[in-house]
Design brief:
This protein has a single domain, classed as 3-Layer(aba) Sandwich (Rossmann fold). The protein is of the alpha/beta class and 224 residues long. The protein has nine helices and seven strands. The longest helix has 22 residues.
């Protein structure tokens, strides 16, 4: 009996294209951030705040991934940066080939930072490399403090965790110590042994400066 490992084959093919993407990004000195998280965690809000803060010092581009609509891409476009929308038509994640295709719509010579907002999901995006320089997950207070424990696969592959909507901590009785304790044992990072955790609020802008400093520090290594 022949057993066909479909998942392994799919991931192997994806990784090959991701490596091709990484070479393109490296050769063009582009720092690429794969932004993952649940629907409603605040991924787009974080990007808008980041664009507002860094848009004068970095040339920024965005790839928006959604199952349907171009709502988030329109918000990004209104902020004045080039954006490409990918509608997956049901797929729960972006893959490397989607990114490779989207790149044909950018002039990478004019991009320093490229953000890829992945489809809202805490499972599938973690398994698909895109060629990115860094991976982050945005987790929000209303989701509860148990997400790192329930979805360890996501929190294990990221370089940074952004706990968003901390202005609602008291409202939801969120335990930040529990959240952090569950993140750190699972963490693996290409920059250090554990992911960094940033407590932020896109509404009040509290904590965003630390995230921006991290981004400038690591992005500056690659960017011109």
């Amino acid at each position: 009996m022949k057993v066909i490992e479909i998942a392994a084959s799919v991931l192997k093919g994806n990784d090959r294209i991701a490596d091709e993407n990484r070479i393109v990004f490296r050769d063009n000195h582009v720092f690429v951030v794969n932004v993952m998280g649940s629907p409603g965690a605040g991924k787009t809000s974080l990007l808008l705040k980041t664009i507002e803060a860094l848009g004068q010092g970095f040339n920024i581009g965005v790839i928006e991934g959604d199952i349907a609509t171009s709502h988030d891409a329109e918000l990004i476009q209104a902020a004045g940066v080039p954006v490409v929308q990918i509608n997956t038509q049901g797929a729960c994640h972006l893959d490397a080939m989607m990114i490779k295709t989207a790149l044909t719509h950018f002039d990478l010579a004019k991009i320093d930072l490229l953000f890829i907002e992945n489809v809202g999901n805490l499972v599938c995006p973690a398994g698909f490399r895109l060629g990115e320089s860094a991976r982050i997950v945005v987790s929000s207070v209303p989701e509860g403090d148990d997400k790192p424990k329930k979805y360890p696969g996501m929190f294990r592959v990221v370089d940074a965790v952004l706990l968003n909507k901390i202005d609602l901590l008291d409202v939801f009785g969120f335990n930040t110590n529990t959240f952090k304790e569950d993140v750190l044992p699972a963490g693996f990072s290409s920059f250090s042994s554990k992911p960094e955790i940033f407590e932020v609020s896109c509404k009040t802008e509290k904590g965003l400066s630390v995230w921006l400093d991290w981004l400038k520090k690591h992005g500056g290594v690659v960017c011109r």
